[in-house]
Amino acid sequence: MLDLAKHVVLCALLGCVYASCPPRCECSEAAHTVKCVSRDLRSIPTGIPGYTRNLFITGNQISRIGPESFKGLDNVTNLSLSNNRISEVESHTFTGLRSLRSLDLSNNQLAVIHPEAFIAQNQSLRELNLSRALYNHSSVMDLANSLRWSSLGNLRSLDLSHNSLIFLPSRIFSHLSSLQRLQLSNNSLVAIHNSTFSGLERLQELDLTLNALKTVPEEGLRELDSIYPATLLLGENPFMCKCGIEPFALWLNRSQERISDAEDLVCAFPASMRNTSMLAVGTLTLGCHQRNVGADLALQTSYVFLGIVLGFVGLIFLFVLYLNRKGIKKRIYDMRDACREVWDGYHYRFEIDSGPRLSQVSTNADM
């Protein structure tokens, strides 16, 4: 009877544990884990056990999340919401997750991110994964505003890879003062502007591989120097090795200790320079210095020659005028007399036409 009673109590306890697991989810109290993977869920399920530390809700059809989605989950430290087609994150969505340290929103379609979306208590979040998460370019501005309003002062890692980013708003990371690792790989960034990485004083690694950087102008080089001594990754960019890239090439040689893949950086264009090491690119390789000197010399010579020709033509013209000064003077006098006669004729005719009596006399005289 005693053994039977123990079994009944054990079964009852197991039943309670099983009953506390949301439908279409798998729960493990021993591992403090709840998984709701590819269950065609339309919203965050209710009844998630309070013991949960690792919560995986992935591969579903959830379109939005808000403050009511994670109530009572004070113990959750790792939350994965990847591949759910989430398009909207409301303000204070994660406020109730007091212990949250890792948040994965990758592979979603975030079109609307409210300004206070990432405000959380205790600033506990350390890792934020937004890889393949942004739906369009306008959501980048939403993200910038939410990062400025956020309580992510202790964030260590931010993943923004595979988002087709063309640009980054100025000072987008300025409130992430503790950020150590920033992944921007597999985007379409064409330039690095002033204040792009402002505020990242503790950054240790910046990944810019597989973007659309053809060169990095002096403004961008100053920005990269501002996050010294962070390690940089610049591989798989279509660098254009033509005149004007020399400052970037010299900077690469000077900063090799910071660039993990410096020896793998090669020219993509033009065809004659393809696969040439960026470290070997310089004024001697491109011949820009010599060509510029030759061009300047040729231009200066052309100007001097043109001046001499024009001066010679002017002297000839003045000499011709001098030789024909008498004839020119006579022609000028003749033109003056002819003009005077024409003017006197017009004046006489005007007086006749304006005086009726004189006009009549003139008419009778003609008769």
From TrEMBL:
Boundaries of every LRRNT domain copy: 20-54
Residue stretches spanning the membrane: 303-323
Residue span, LRRCT domain: 237-289
Coiled-coil regions, chain positions: none
InterPro entries per UniProt: Cys-rich_flank_reg_C, Leu-rich_rpt, Leu-rich_rpt_typical-subtyp, LRR_dom_sf, LRRNT, Wnt_signaling_inhibitor
An individual GO BP term: anterior/posterior pattern specification
SUPFAM superfamilies xref list: L domain-like
Origin: domain of life: Eukaryota
Signal peptide from the UniProt entry: 1-19
Name of a matching Pfam family: LRR_8
Name this polypeptide is given: Trophoblast glycoprotein 1b
Family annotation (SMART domains): LRR_TYP, LRRCT, LRRNT
Keyword annotations: Leucine-rich repeat, Membrane, Repeat, Signal, Transmembrane, Transmembrane helix
A cellular-component GO term for this protein: plasma membrane
